[in-house]
Amino acid sequence: MSKVFLLGANKEIDRAKQVVEVNQVIQMEGYSYHKYVVYDITKNQWGITYKLINLTTKDFHTADIIRPLKEKFGIGFYYDSENPQFIDAFEVAILLQEAQQKKKAEQDEADKEKIRVEEVKTIGRKRFAEIFPDDAQAVIVARLKQDESDSQTDYFASSTQRTVILGFSKHKRDIFSEMRKHASNFEETAYLEEYNEDYEHREKYSMGDGYYLGESKYHGWIIEKCPVYKRESTIEEFSYTAGGEDNIHINRPNTTPPNNPTGSGKDACTMVEYSAKAVAVFGDTKSIKDELRAMGGRFNARLTFNGQKLAGWIFPKSQEQRLAYYFGVD
Length: 330
Hints:
Layout: E1 3-6, E2 11-14, E3 25-29, E4 35-44, E5 47-54, E6 60-63, E7 66-68, E8 76-79, H1 89-131, E9 138-147, E10 158-169, H2 176-183, E11 200-203, E12 210-214, E13 220-227, H3 231-237, H4 239-243, E14 269-275, E15 278-283, H5 289-294, E16 298-305, E17 308-316, H6 320-327
Parallel strand pairs: 7-8
Antiparallel strand pairs: 1-2, 3-4, 3-8, 4-5, 5-6, 9-10, 9-13, 11-12, 12-13, 14-15, 15-17, 16-17
């Protein structure tokens, strides 16, 4: 069970056979070319494991196979069988202590980051739930892509550097005109509002990236729709994004009171920014009063806005974006 065959090197290796000693220096070839010191050796039913410390970075590593440098073939760990090099045991002990301290510091930072992320998500879950319409079937988002490709190795990939919530949709259909409409909600994607056939990407095939609006999936901003299948899962998916207030760019309300509204219900109402902490809805709200109340509104017959006394509904600022979606504010 301890023997392995290296196909490229055409050689069988017995992992149960120890080839280097504790405190011996080995090196990585074909990748980083760093040197390592062996600080411990363990054995099990599958063979020997060498525990290493990188002499440059002081990171921990392990190796199952270490080959002689004179038989070098490909990437791997090698030892000099003709002129072996060793480090004093006391120096290795100091290196081990430094590596342990570094690992602990990195773990402490990772734990702090985990706590920070969860705190952001806690804020984001609440914030996103407040603006997430009950009838939404999809979330329209913008993503900033960074090219991670390597043309020399024919490797093509990208990473998402930022996600911005632009709005919601009452259906799951991919419609580019709808994406363009929401592009204007965010300054950095506003240029995508203008029709450009080259920006419309249809990749709904195996290994494709679906429908997205943008110059390229590898760099710059793209806009896409994310279907809602389960409300709780969608809230969790966007909790970190919504935790940053600047990552939400949904249509803003009007800032002027209504002037002789016509129609009834929604058509007869106007939403305005009432103060730094509140928004208000004015107009013929009789037919939708139950919905407004369900969204956290309170009716007040004597609101003052722009020097006028008006009857209307007052809402906390946190409901602004949900109301904008409800009234279809552009």
